[in-house]
Design a protein that fits this description.
Layout lengths: L4 H21 L6 E6 L6 E6 L13 E11 L2 E4 L16 H15 L6 E4 L5 E7 L2 E9 L5 E2 L2 E5 L1 E3 L4 E3 L1 E6 L1 E2 L3 E8 L11 E5 L7 E6 L5 E5 L4 E9 L10 E6 L5 E3 L2 E2 L6 E8 L11 H28 L1
Parallel strand pairs: 2-12, 14-22
Antiparallel strand pairs: 1-12, 2-6, 3-4, 3-5, 3-7, 7-9, 8-13, 10-11, 14-17, 15-16, 15-18, 18-19, 19-20, 20-21
């Protein structure tokens, strides 16, 4: 395959430049925070690395799908039939709108196609695709496992190594991910006052009947309890121990997180504040059992007993008279 040296230089150089530009302009467009070339070789290679998260989520078993969507012929991208409606070209790799449109289209089209390769990350969060030809590749996470939400990735082969002054057919991509939202339960009384410093417990369940427990969470001193979800997961949250002097709430809350990171509560999408959804659960105070009898009730009972005695006396008197 004959390739124009100038076009190939621009193609590879813009790949690395594009990752940095789009990451700054719109982090959700391209998942590559940085792209660096690695050692040259006869076959193309794409290495993806997942960063460690703040909450130390497992980086293992995150599954990526790889699609080769275009060939590189004489410095131009030639798209394969399923993706022929994509118009992105080498000289547009530094243009934000064109890249965004291409990612949206490719994401839609690849859902209908079988990936060229699948691979899962190891314990260090590393995924490797080997034996790749030159061209344009689209990568999508099909199974996030217990990791964060990873944006789709566009990678081009080859890449220009500025330090070495040569084209290289192997690249390393540091994937961009987004923290998953938290769900915070706030315990209040019927006056919406937070029940601080009280002992209570909420539990998450796999089923709406609250039989299969996932985890139990005791209250924090500030009267809050926090839960986290994985992508494509639905949990059910219920109070399992009420504060002393309060009635246990029977409310069951359904919380779901889809593959795009959209959180819903009882089927309704919610807007997050600082990547957190807050739910208030109220408790009513238990009323003390009454051990005495009030005067009105006592009077009624007294009248009833007197009347009953009167009826009995009258019946006895009548019986003796007839005898």
């Amino acid at each position: 395959m004959k390739v124009k040296p100038c076009s190939l230089f621009c193609f590879g150089f813009l790949t690395g430049l594009l990752a940095l530009m789009l990451g700054a302009l719109c982090p959700g467009v391209l998942a590559a925070e940085t792209v660096e070339s690695v050692e040259d070789g006869p076959d193309g290679l794409i290495r993806i690395e997942l960063k460690e998260t703040e909450d130390h989520r497992s980086r293992e078993n995150v599954e990526f799908e790889l699609y080769r969507v275009a060939d590189l012929v004489d410095g131009d991208l030639v798209y394969f039939e399923p993706y022929s409606s994509c118009t992105l070209q080498v000289d547009q790799l530094d243009q934000f709108d064109e890249m965004k449109d291409a990612l949206t289209l490719l994401k839609k089209q690849t859902r209908k196609e079988k990936p060229d390769q699948n691979a899962k990350s190891d314990a260090d969060g590393v995924v490797v695709f080997e034996g790749l030809e030159r061209g344009l590749y689209f990568l999508h996470v099909s199974d996030p496992a217990r990791y964060e939400r990873v944006e789709d990735v566009i990678v081009t082969l080859p890449v220009y190594n500025e330090e070495e002054g040569r084209m290289e057919n192997k690249v390393s991509v540091f994937a961009k991910s987004w923290p998953l939202p938290m769900v915070e339960i706030i315990k209040t009384d019927t006056n919406h006052q937070v029940l601080e410093g009280m002992d209570f417990e909420f539990s998450s369940f796999r089923d709406a009947d609250t039989q299969e427990v996932i985890e139990r969470k005791s209250a924090q001193p500030d009267g809050h309890v926090c839960f986290s979800l994985n992508l494509n997961q639905t949990i059910y949250i219920k109070e399992t121990r009420a504060p002393e002097g309060y009635i246990l709430s029977a409310k069951v809350i359904e919380i779901a997180l889809d593959e795009e990171g959209q959180l819903t509560i009882d089927g309704q999408p919610v807007e997050l504040t600082n990547n957190k959804a807050v739910i208030e659960v109220q408790n009513r105070q238990a009323t003390k059992a009454k051990t005495g009898v009030n005067s009105h009730t006592a009077a009624c009972i007294g009248i009833l007993l007197v009347s009953l005695m009167g009826v009995i006396v009258l019946l006895v008197f009548k019986k003796k008279r007839f005898e």
